[in-house]
Design brief:
about 140 residues, mainly alpha, two-stranded parallel ribbon, 7 helices, 2 strands
Length: about 140
């Protein structure tokens, strides 16, 4: 997860693609319905997010408003967090050189997680044998 964003969204081609992104019709309709209900169902922040809901690419920006808000919220101590981080450059390189091609290690790393594993992989870490095994291990250990 790119907790700190991704530099990828700063490329002009990605910004052009972003202008073509539109949410699913059902989400657009739900957003319009929430806007009609206004302050009766949403906080001021909720109203702002609903009116200016960022696309998935906009949420990857390091200066994303939602990302900034979430980065200030502490991890819930009753939830066990785990990080699987890909490094297409291998696992023996300095952490400041690690990236899965989309997300840098510095953006994926979270302090206070129960476990963190770095896997030699591109952004498709969830498709690797090690990634699948790690997710399986985490799910089996959950109570």
């Amino acid at each position: 997860t790119p907790h700190g964003g991704s530099e990828l969204v700063d490329y002009p081609a990605i910004r052009a693609i972003n202008s073509l992104i539109r949410g699913p019709d059902i989400m657009v309709m739900a957003s319009q319905k929430l806007a009609e209900m206004g302050h009766r169902v949403l906080t001021p922040l909720g109203l702002t997010v609903n009116e200016e809901f960022p696309s998935s690419l906009e949420q990857l920006s390091s200066d994303s408003e939602l990302g900034t808000i979430f980065s200030k919220i502490p991890l819930n101590p009753s939830v066990e967090y785990h990080s699987l981080i890909g490094s297409k450059n291998g696992t023996d390189v300095p952490k400041d050189e690690m990236t899965d091609g989309v997300v840098a290690y510095s953006s994926a790393h979270l302090e206070g997680v129960a476990s963190e594993i770095i896997i030699e992989s591109d952004h498709a870490i969830h498709r690797t044998e090690i990634g699948i095994a790690e997710v399986t291990r985490i799910l089996k250990s959950a109570r």
